[in-house]
Amino acid sequence: MPPVVLDRRAARPLSVQLADALRAAAAAGTLRPGDRLPSTRALAGVLQVSRTVTAAAYDQLLAEGWADGRRGAGTFVVGSAPGPVPAAAAGPPGEVAAGGLVELRAGTPCLAVLDRAAWRRAWRAAGDQPPDARYDPTGDLGFRTAVTEHLLRHRGLAVRPADLLATAGTSAAVAEVARLLPPGSRIGVEDPGYQRVVGALRDVGAQVVPLRVDDDGLVVGEVPAGLAAVYCTPAHQYPLGRRMSATRRGELVARARAEGWWVLEDDYDGELRYDVAPLPLLGSLGPDVVVHLGTTSKILSPTLGVGWLVAPAPLRAELVARRTASGTRPALAGQRVFAALATSGDLARHLRRLRRELAERRGLVLAAVAEAGLTARGDAAGAHVLVPLCDAVTETAVLAAAAAVGVALDGVARHRLTGGPGPAGLVLGFAAPTRPELDGALPALTEVLRSR
Q1: Which residue(s) pair with 385 in the sheet?
Q2: Residue 433 sits in which domain range?
Q3: Quick one: 165 and 255 in the same domain?
Q4: DSSP-derived secondary structure for 46-100
Q5: Which of 130, 167, 213, 257 is the most buried (most CB within 10 A)?
Q6: Same domain, yes or no, for 162 and 278?
Q7: Mean pLDDT confidence for 138-156
Q8: pLDDT digit string (tens) for 10-60?
Q9: How many helices (H) and strands (E) does the chain have?
């Protein structure tokens, strides 16, 4: 075991420093494949830190594939990490990462903390089930049962398996609901908002109506009359990163009831909150008018290709009838993998690691932005923050300057539904890169922001 020096005055968490040191030692050959690492308790004693620090560092190395835990034997170094670029291969700040730009745009899950052994176990468990001769249009019962437990534990939404349908993801679910509405129906969407939902709605012939948002979320008082539905992201507005106030949630549900339209609640990353419990879901406040949507894409991987929909019984019945008539169906394999992860406890462990990792990354991003003299905005939740900029010209210039030094950024302009002037800024994501890539990209980001 090589010597490890931790800087207790540094901004980077001790667990991150320890993981980086062990990763670098393995990449350099100081730690060789097959070497047994000290127990978390023993290493904590040597370094004079809490066991939480060493356990978090080992969790990170296990998730990245640098180490392998063997029951009853300990934790061992393996040959190389699958996929992510190791620290030794990461270039200096600002250098283009292997394979292209370092990805600091929002919308990509944090695969670095996904336990590949648990992932493989879940796929094997899904494959052990016998082939299906028929298909249930509501989705796999095991998946729907796992989702009900997940929603109750992580979102406080009490539903039964019969209350929800499996979906092929949020955009596909929104399109399914929109197909049940009269052709050309007007559907309100937050502006700025999620462009894939906009595309899905237009693809089925719906008329998209932009709805203004501010620091309290969707401005309910400005929602026009005559809509068939309203799509929104109340727990963590995409892309501005704020949650809808309790007052506006009540107003939205009340208007939906009074005017006879659906509220499509996209809870795309509601499990990822780092300060306090989120406000109650719209699905809890208005189960008679709210269609609650969730996805596995942000907490696990788009590979699964599945999500869920909780809706009133009449709407569910219409959706099932249309699926039966058209053969529309989300993938069973992804549903069964999710159910296996949930049943084994691996999903809960993954979410704990994910929240811890993203909270740390968020702190690093906030520090990098502050060092440039700017302030990042948004709730302590999810995997992105908003960095306001003075105007669209500056936004365009920052995107170009960042790309020139190997960092891919995203601007608010791309998420606006309407043309013309509007708020400018960066939608800064921090889930996609490996930790070494993030550590290398943040100084470059600071310099780009400072220079602009």
Answers
A1: 428
A2: 90-107+348-452
A3: yes
A4: HHT--HHHHHHHHHHHHHHTSEEEETTTEEEE-S--SSSPPGGG--STTPPBTTB
A5: 167
A6: yes
A7: 95
A8: 878 899 889 888 887 777 677 878 888 999 998 998 898 999 999 988 888
A9: 14, 15
